[in-house]
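[step 3/7] fold_predict: job queued, chain A
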Amino acid sequence: MKPIPLLTALLLTMLVGCSAKKATVEDFQDQVEDQFRTSIKGDGIKLFVYKVRKVNNKELPHVYRAKQAKRSSRNSGPDLSDWTEQIELGLLKTIDMTGFCREGYFELSRIIEYGRGEIRGECIEGASEADKQAFAS
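[step 4/7] structure written:
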């Protein structure tokens, strides 16, 4: 076997392995402030609102949008994919730490903008007596 195809295969394997790495909180440079508010309705429905905002914004939102507008076409907005990923990861970590939604959740709405975001959801499972005591309003 020639060394070049073997080296190429090895490099491709390493590249795919690195790209499959799950993101962690430490992967993001942005410092954020978040809020996780819970609500349990009388019929046991468990709702939450997760809000996030950047606290280390050195650039004003309108300046950022103007720069993005110059880079992007008229029909597309700024690339918020990294910011969205950070918000989603923060929500998952928060739900995991609090134990609020043990079986997952349904997303009811989301608003993702530069520097801030909000995701509203409903837990798949209903509230137990322990949930009602732990997350009482």
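[step 5/7] annotate
The first helix runs from residue 3 to 19.
The beta strands are 32-40, 46-54, 105-113, 116-123.
exit 0
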